[in-house]
Amino acid sequence: MVQSQQSEPKTNHVVAPFRGDHVGSLLRSDRIKWARIQKITGELTSDELRLIEDAEITRIVEKQKEVGLQAVTDGEFRRAWWHFDFLENLEGVEGYESDSGIQFHGTKTKAHAIKVTGKINFHNHPMLEHYKFLHNIAGSHTAKMTIPSPNMLYFRGDFENDLYDDQDLLLRDLTQAYQKAIQAFYDAGCRYLQLDDTSWSLFFSEHGHEQIRAKGQEPEQLQQFFAKLINTSIAKKPADMRITMHICRGNFKSTYAASGGYDAVSETLFDGLDVDGLFLEYDDERSGGFEPLRYVKRPDLQLVLGLVTSKFGELEDPELVKRRIDKAASFVNINQLCLSPQCGFASTEEGNILSEKEQWEKLRHVVTIANEVWK
Question: Any alpha helices (H) in the chain, and if so which ranges?
Answer without folding.
Answer: 30-41, 46-66, 84-87, 127-138, 151-156, 167-187, 206-214, 219-233, 266-271, 318-328, 356-373
